[in-house]
Amino acid sequence: MDCPKCKTSMEEVTCDQVLIDRCTKCQGLWFDNGGAEALSNRLIAEYIDTGDAATGEEMDEIDAINCPRCSKPMRRFFDISETQLQYEECDEHGKFFDAGEFTLWAESQYQ
Ligand SMILES: [Zn+2]
Ligand SMILES: [Zn+2]
Hints:
By secondary structure, the protein is an alpha+beta fold.
């Protein structure tokens, strides 16, 4: 599977029996439906979200991406309390987070 943002191939990472795709270039993370929720734990997030948050912020400039599974445009989510947190979601397939964003998102799940 190719990264929906930078089109580089992604590597599969398995964590706690959940399969994730991580971009080998921008380190963005793709989770199939339910995967992000299953792994929304701070320690796990730090383990899999290995990219540089600065790179993730640069990637925020690419704001129109298509779902890597169905190629339909993904919806963009903003968290008003966490301006850095912007992620994309396809209702049918899953979520994409830029580097550093999954960690923020996982933390926000426990507030
Ligand atoms: Zn990428
Ligand atoms: Zn989709």
